[in-house]
Design a protein that fits this description.
Blueprint: H1 33-40, H2 47-65, E1 69-74, H3 79-87, E2 91-93, H4 95-99, H5 101-104, E3 110-114, H6 117-126, E4 132-135, H7 143-146, H8 150-164, E5 168-173, H9 178-186, E6 190-192, H10 197-206, E7 210-214, H11 217-226, E8 234-236, H12 240-243, H13 257-263, E9 266-268, H14 281-289, E10 293-296, H15 302-307, E11 310-311, H16 314-323, E12 329-333, H17 336-347, E13 352-355, H18 379-390, E14 405-406, E15 413-414, H19 418-440
């Protein structure tokens, strides 16, 4: 099991700035509303009241399912969920480690994840037929992935395939739906994570193919820079937030026109993470001038990554916290809940942690951000999902099957037919297995 890194002991955190303000934090379904009402009625919602309340639901579920139950959470979840999943014996990890949990623990039959939908779906793609994957809140999403839905990417990918045929190879970041992971598999490509993107892109370049990197333009650009690629041979597609899905690849939509597209070694989908794009080079320089060590996530802009002392995945950042000697001063540029958890872990070891955007200067006008869509996982969703599963009454919307597409605003789900799902799993699993072979092979 991956290390459950956050510190033990529950300390429900106060409000944290939220970068994505287009969606409310929590909408409770009818089935989950009674649990939310109980939770909100708790006095002050301190550990003294929250933990006994949770025990009423979580412990009976654990007794009912026994060793076949596995709880999972991502590092970016709110501090209370990270600590609660750890408290109840679950695993807390990055998206790569989470994706492998079903395959590496075949004895687990009921897997409940407090994370975003694409993460739970990645687990489901690699799961066996007798393993069920559930998500505590199906509306928990990722703004980057929301700007790279299949109905947005496929029309563009179709044009690229028509133009380049078998020369096109898709590299799909883990932060994509199974439908895009399937596209990567079908084109001979692979999935990547923020920690292994350079290995996967290096492998893709060796195929002498034109690479479509989807969805995060910043990770793609930072990966190219890390590999020493000619950045002039990168083409970034239009911002999907402005151009949507219905555009034609021509001289009017592509910077540099179709000549630049034809000359490109790698084409970057125009999506991005709203949390990591608030960071600036000036923030990095502020902390460096005051002798802090600055580490950032590679979804940050290129100039931020270049200016920082180091960059890497959530696993990389967490290991830096755990391995820092007493007296160290680290500044971390990533999601706010992660940094709050890192601060608690660092404080217990004499390590000071600051969030990159928390510059104590009004001129910067930014603060450490939490991911709004990930924050939709909270104690009522955990308690309610487990209790309803134990009773055999869990809403089917919480069940995650490969290929499921959930609208984060309405909650509407599009589920593939059995035949469509089997085809998707074949291609998507191939793209994930290629990543594993590239990353963990000899």
């Amino acid at each position: 099991m991956p290390s459950t890194a956050p510190p033990t002991g529950l300390a429900l955190e106060p409000g944290i700035p939220i970068c994505q303000t287009d969606l409310p934090l929590d909408w409770y379904s009818e089935a989950l509303r009674p649990y939310a009402e109980e939770y909100l009625a708790l006095p002050d919602r301190t550990p003294e009241s929250v933990l006994p309340w949770l025990d009423r639901y979580v412990l009976p579920a654990q007794e009912h399912f026994g060793d076949t139950l596995l709880l999972l959470a991502h590092f970016y979840m709110g501090g209370e969920i990270v600590k609660l999943v750890e408290r109840y014996g679950g695993a807390v990890a990055d998206s790569y480690a989470l994706a492998l949990q079903a395959a590496r623990h075949p004895e687990k039959r009921v897997i409940v994840e407090s994370a975003v939908h694409f993460m739970a779906e990645a687990v489901a793609i690699l799961a066996a037929d007798d393993q069920q994957v559930w998500i505590t809140n199906p509306k928990a999403g990722c703004t980057m992935e929301m700007l790279a839905k299949d109905h947005m990417v496929f029309p563009v990918a179709d044009q690229l395939e028509e133009r380049y045929g078998d020369e096109l190879l898709v590299v799909a970041y883990m932060n994509t739906s199974g439908r895009l992971k399937s596209l990567a598999g079908r084109t001979g490509g692979a999935v990547c994570t923020s920690s292994n993107a350079h290995k996967v892109v290096a492998w893709a370049r060796a195929q002498n193919k034109k690479i479509l990197f989807v969805p995060d333009q910043h990770l793609g650009r930072n990966t190219a820079d890390k590999l020493g690629m000619d950045l002039e041979r990168l083409v970034t597609l239009p911002d999907p937030a402005r151009h949507g899905a219905g555009y034609t690849l021509d001289d009017g939509t592509i910077e540099g026109g179709t000549d630049a597209l034809d000359a490109a070694e790698m084409i970057l989908w125009g999506s991005y993470c709203g949390v990591h794009t608030v960071f600036t080079e000036a923030m990095v320089e502020y902390w460096k001038e005051r002798d802090w060590r600055v580490l950032v996530h590679p979804e940050s802009p290129l100039e931020v990554v270049r200016a920082a002392h180091g960059s890497g995945s959530t696993h990389y950042l967490w290991q830096a916290v755990l391995q820092a000697p007493a007296g160290s001063r680290l500044v971390i540029g990533t999601e706010g809940h992660f940094v709050r958890n890192a601060q608690a872990a660092g404080a217990s070891r004499g390590v000071q942690i600051m969030h990159l955007a928390d510059v104590p200067d009004e001129g910067f006008g930014a603060s450490g951000c939490g991911c709004a869509t990930m924050s939709r996982n909270d104690p009522p969703h955990l308690a309610g999902t487990l209790d309803l599963l134990r009773r055999g009454e869990a809403p089917d919307l919480h069940r995650v099957l490969p290929g499921d597409s959930v609208d984060e605003a309405s909650g509407a789900r599009d589920r593939l037919s059995e035949a469509e799902r089997a085809e998707l799993v074949g291609h998507a699993k191939l793209s994930l297995e290629r990543m594993i072979a590239i990353t963990e092979g000899p």
